[in-house]
Amino acid sequence: MPRIIAVANQKGGVGKTTTALNLAAALADGGARVLLIDLDPQANCTAGLGVDAQPGRSIYNVISDGLPLNEVVVKTPVARLLIAVSHIDLSAAELELVSALAREYALKRALDKAQLDYDYVLIDCPPSLGLLTLNALVAAHEVLIPVQCEFYALAGLAKLLDTVGRIRAALNSELQLAGAVLTMHDNRTRLSKEVVDEVNANFPGRVFKTLVPRSVRVAESPSHGLPVILHDPQGPGAEAYRALAAELAGERMEE
Amino acid sequence: MPRIIAVANQKGGVGKTTTALNLAAALADGGARVLLIDLDPQANCTAGLGVDAQPGRSIYNVISDGLPLNEVVVKTPVARLLIAVSHIDLSAAELELVSALAREYALKRALDKAQLDYDYVLIDCPPSLGLLTLNALVAAHEVLIPVQCEFYALAGLAKLLDTVGRIRAALNSELQLAGAVLTMHDNRTRLSKEVVDEVNANFPGRVFKTLVPRSVRVAESPSHGLPVILHDPQGPGAEAYRALAAELAGERMEE
Ligand SMILES: Nc1ncnc2c1ncn2[C@@H]1O[C@H](COP(=O)(O)OP(=O)(O)OP(=O)(O)O)[C@@H](O)[C@H]1O
Ligand SMILES: Nc1ncnc2c1ncn2[C@@H]1O[C@H](COP(=O)(O)OP(=O)(O)OP(=O)(O)O)[C@@H](O)[C@H]1O
Ligand SMILES: [Mg+2]
Ligand SMILES: [Mg+2]
What we know:
The structure is a homodimer. Chain A is an alpha/beta fold. Chain A is built from 11 helices and 8 strands. The first copy, chain A, has helices at residues 16-29, 44-48, 59-65, 93-98, 106-113, 131-139, 157-170, 190-202, 216-220, 228-231, 236-250; strands at 3-7, 34-38, 73-75, 81-84, 120-124, 142-148, 176-185, 207-213. In chain A, strand 3 (73-75) and strand 4 form a beta hairpin. In chain A, helix 1 (16-29) packs across helix 11 (236-250) and helix 5 runs parallel beside helix 6 (131-139). The longest helix of chain A has 15 residues, at 236-250. Chain A is globular and about 50 Å long. The A-B interface holds A 10-14, 17, 41-44, 47-48, 88, 91, 94-95, 98, 126-130, 148, 150-152, 155-156, 159, 186, 189-191, 194, 216, 219-220, 222-223 and B 10-14, 17, 41-44, 47-48, 88, 91, 94-95, 98, 126-130, 148, 150-152, 155-156, 159, 186, 189-191, 194, 216, 219-220, 222-223. One adenosine-5'-triphosphate sits between chains A (12-18, 40, 44, 126-127, 183-184, 212, 214-215, 218-219, 237) and B (11-13, 127, 150, 152). One adenosine-5'-triphosphate (ATP) sits between chains B (12-18, 40, 44, 126-127, 183-184, 212, 214-215, 218-219, 237) and A (11-13, 127, 150, 152).
C-alpha cells in the first residue's frame, strides 16, 4: 500500500506544484515507484512535465464519470514517475461535486478501485479548501504543507490545520501531518528568517529541516518540461528536493 | 460613479493582493478617493494594511447577511484610502452562495445600495474562478489581471479571459478588460523576458507598459502593515506602482 500524500495549502503560489512535482521526481530518482496526481484545473504539474492532457481522459473524468484511474496515467521524463493528468475541464468539478452523493469520497473511491503499484502517491492541490482539496485530504494518509518564506504565507496555516483536524474527525481518521516545508527561502533577507522562526515556533517538531532555496533554475525547469533534478542536477534546487525526499522517506513527524 | 475594478487571476501567488493594495495606495497618494474591497477569505489585504477584522463585521456579513457595506469600511495608514475588511468567515461564502437566489449578484447588490463616494473601488479576489470571484466580476466595470513573470502564469489566462467573456454575455455587459499587469519581473532572467514577450504577443495592446519589478521591499511591506509607497517610497516597487496608477488613471485599454 503506497503512502498517499496530499500537497496542500489554500494560499496561492507557495510552491505546491513545484514541491509535488520535484519531490515526486526526487523520490523516483532515488528508486521509488511514484504516482503524481494533478488535481488542479490549471494542470500545472501536467504542463511542467511536458505532458499533454486530452479532453475526456483526465482526472476530471475519473472523478466525474468514474473512468478508471489508470486510463489517465501516463509516463513522464523521469524513470519510475507516472502522472495522472489534469485538464481545464476539472474546473467544472467543484460545482458539480456540491450536489453529488458522498462528494468528498470521489477521489478515494477511484484510488480504492485502482491497482496502486507505487511506493508513493503525491496529490497536487489547487489553491483553495474547496471540494477538490477536500477530496485529496480524504483520499490521503498524510498532508504535506508547503509554506513560502513570505509574510502572507502565515495567515492561512491555522485554518488549514483546523480543516485537517475536522477531516480527520469526520471523514478520514488516518489523516496525519507529514510536515511543513519551507519554500523559496532566501537567506539574504530578514523576512525569510522571520518566517522560518515563526513557523518553527508555531509547529514545533512538524517542520522539515530541508529549506528549499529560491532558485531561478527551479522556476525555469517547467518551461523545459523537466523537474529540476534533470534540468539543473547539481544546483541548489535539485539538492534541496533530494534532501527533502530523503527526509520524507526516513521519518514521519509526530504530531 | 467610481471606476470599479476587480483584480483577478485564478493562478495563485501572482501578485493580486500586492497589486490591489499598492495600486490603491498609489491612486490615493495621487489625490484620488479609493475603496479597497478585500474579497479573499485569507484577508491578506486587511492584514497587509495592519487592520484587524472583527468577526461579524466583515465583507462576509455584507454578502451573507446583507449588512450595509459602510459598516465594514475602515481607515488605513494611507490618506483617502479606505478598506472593506475581510475575515476567515468568508471561506463559508462559496458553499453558502451556491444555492442562494441571484448568487452572482450578492456583492453588486451591496455596492448598489451603498453611497460610493470614491473615484476608484478595487476588489482583491481569491485564487479561483468560484462564486466570490464571479461576484467581483459581476459588480465590476473592469478587470485588471496581474500576471507573474513565470512559466506557470501563462496557463490560466485563456480560461480567465473566456470566463470574463461569458460574464459579459450573461451577467454584466459593462465588464471591460482594464489590462494585464506583469509582476515580479526580474530583468536578469531569460524566463521573465520570455513571459513578457508571450503576454504581449497574446494580448496586443492590452498589457500595461509598467513592469512591476521583483523587490524584497515589496514583499516586506505588508509585515509592517504599510503599502510599499510608505515603506520604501523611493524604491523600485513604489515607483512602479505610482507609474501603474498614472497609466490606469490616464487611459482605458481598447479590447
Ligand atoms: N524554490 C523556488 N525558487 C524559485 N521559484 C520557485 C520556487 N518554488 C516555486 N517557484 C516558482 O514560484 C511560482 C509559484 O510556485 P507554484 O506554482 O509551484 O506554487 P503553487 O502553490 O502550486 O501555486 P498555485 O497556488 O497557483 O497552485 C512558480 O512560478 C514557481 O516556478
Ligand atoms: N513585486 C514583487 N516583488 C517581490 N515580491 C512580491 C512582489 N509582488 C508580490 N510579491 C510577493 O509574492 C507573494 C505573492 O503575492 P500576492 O500574495 O500578492 O499574490 P496573490 O495573487 O494575491 O496570491 P493569492 O493567489 O494567494 O491571493 C507575496 O508573498 C508577495 O509579498
Ligand atoms: Mg499549483
Ligand atoms: Mg491574494
